[in-house]
User: Fold this.
Amino acid sequence: MRFDTVLLARDAEGLFWMARYLERVENLARLIDVTQSFESPGYETQAWFGLIQINADEKNFEKRGFSPDATHVKRFYLLDKGNPTSIPANIEDARTNARTLRPLMSTEMWRQINVFHRFVSRILPEDLEGDALSRLCTKLKDGVQAHTGITEGTLYRDQGWYFYHLGRVIERADQTTRMLDIKYTTMLPRDGEAKRVAELTQWNAVLRAGAGYHAFKRHARAMFSAEDVVDFLLRDPSSPRSALLCVRRAEAYLEDLRRIYGLSRANEPMEVAEYLREILTEKLISHILATGLHDYLDAVQIQLQRLAAAIGRAFFRDWRPDEGQFPAETLDASQSQSQSSGSAQTAAPDYPAGGKAEALA
Amino acid sequence: MGNRPLSDIFSHAWPDYDPGRYFCELTKPRADAGPVPTWLAERLAKIGLTELRGRAAAAETELIDLGITFTVYSDATAIDRILPFDCIPRILTFGEWDLLERACKQRVAALNLFLGDIYSKGQIIKDGIIPRELVYGNANYRPEMQDFPVPHGTYVHVCGIDIIRDEHGDFRVLEDNARTPSGVSYVIENRHLMLRTFPDLMAGIRLRPVDDYGRRLRAAMSEIAPGGLDDPQVVLLSPGIYNSAYFEHVFLAREMGVPLVVGSDLVVENDRVYMRTITGLRPVHTIYRRLNDDFLDPAVFRPESMLGVRGLIGAWKAGNVAIANAVGTGVADDKAVYAYMPRIIKYYLGEDALIENVQTNICREKEGLAYTLANLDKLVTKPVGESGGYGITIGPRASKEELETSRAAILADPAQWISQPMIGLSVAPTLSEEGIGPRHLDLRPFIITGKESWVLPGGLTRVALKRGSLIVNSSQGGGSKDTWVLADDFGKGGAP
Assistant:
């Protein structure tokens, strides 16, 4: 068994981002579906605008000339190719990355992305109407999940596989925390029993958006509280989309890169992941809720961005031992992409002169 | 042979099929084709037009799904196009292929000897075989190559030679492509597509396989690597995903099992080339580049090029990396030099060209000029410096005024002109709007050369899908066919 297969830094980054783009599509499709299916009558606009807030798209949404109503939000995310956070734009970016990664991917993976891309680029306004929307969301989720399955079954498990999965779990943790943050802060103010019923409905929707509704029900007390839901989404050890599980996976992937492939550069991102795990486990949920969930989730998200940046510094950039730091901001914004259109054609970054090249045999 | 002659089957199933005065690659009787054309005709007739169309459509969908496409960029949109695929194969017999193969090897050998000569002593010029200014005044001559010998004397590691067939069925070389010829991926993909979609057309017919290309290419790239390395690091250098041939670059990188890199993945330090990997810099020994000379190294060629690698030529001159094809091969596949190829072959190899050029009159020479001027209305005149059909006058289709303009231009600077007779390209049955009709085609075999030359059996058959059109280029409505090279020699004593 040889472990010295070559992985270009650019390709490692491409795999990382391809996974992130596709993960975003699945999350967004689920969120749209849940918003549609479980919106509170009378509060539709607020519910739909929550999507804009989750993605921190307020400015972008306005700039592109949309107004905050259900139709416009749907179009913004499902039809607007010019909106970089839309599903068509994410698929476009994923496929562009797939093109650069084609030599590393199986034919089945490439074919599925190609066909899925064609499907997404042909979404029509009428697909967003009435009951068609839920069917569309199902197809979008199916598309990403087919990708996931084909990847599981065919992607060669060398270093590249780990970078792909690092991208996936980091994005997933990011999405879960964003969703929780917005849903929690936009809870509708009500009183008494009405409040309790309304909240229950909303917490159920939040669980569905986190793809954890049924699993949660199996575990939760009959009269569950907000605390239970937050705990489940953030730190359930078994829910595939809980922030803690994702972070633990990231740690394990980094550990494998270090142990199996001898990549000692994994140390720095591992430290960040470890710190992140501590943040996620150290405090009681009741304490977090009492002192402010929003600030807490903000802190978690900043650490997720630090983790992505640390992985970038360690592996994706032009690095060499004992030399130059790379500006952290190049990778810091986790919502902005790095690897999509154009990178294959851009010039080599400026190079610090006089370095000693290290060639690993 | 079957009981019914081929012409019967064809005139029964496709009564309107009429190749006219052109050589038909299926219906023209060829002694060494054995029963294969008859089988093919029978099977096509049995499948029938409707089913053929249905399967052809499915095959095209398959090409789109698999992204076997080239991308056309217009304004802000990117459109993925497939190279249209025609499902009726073109057959080359054992004997025809034997000739083509030997002719291709001969031509590549001459091209390499010529390049080795002009980039060293220039004996062929001193001997007066080819005019000095044609070589050293050529825009594709690269002084950087002067007096830097290459391993095994090979400059053209991958060559594509465009060959046509005239009304008599004689092969003629139309053009040499010695820079970065493309199209080989379609040869292999077309075969796979045929095997999946038309197994019943192919059953029991033994063909020369096309699967070996990647392995052969990798072997040649290893043979030219510097320093006798056991397992040199080969990479394929692509301009990136926006290049129209990007699919082919991916295909070849995969088939060779080597990384596909773009310029920014490579870096030169102390005259050595490295690629940037997750573990740092790793040395690179051979670069199969699909990038034109002028983009390769901004320090030497176009300074604004962002696709290349600064310092690459320096590393090459230091002997630390091999580049395939070598820089500066463009001087050998130029239109003006093409006209001299028969003499170049004779000069270096002492042989006549096994497949002749299309008869070419060189207007810089007295005889050629006189003949051209006397026969302007019958000839195609071409300026040597241009490509893409610019400045061409097709005599038989030109008006009096156009002919006079052309005459004046030639007289003003005869050295800039060549002339050729109009060639009626051979045809083959092709699925078309009228059913199955004759369409013109050419052939581009691919030759790989490291220490020695190897020719991929068959090559890319391009077909002009428009009725009557002689232009096979994909940009102008051309498609491609699977090219069958029969593995059995039916010529000597019938079927084996």
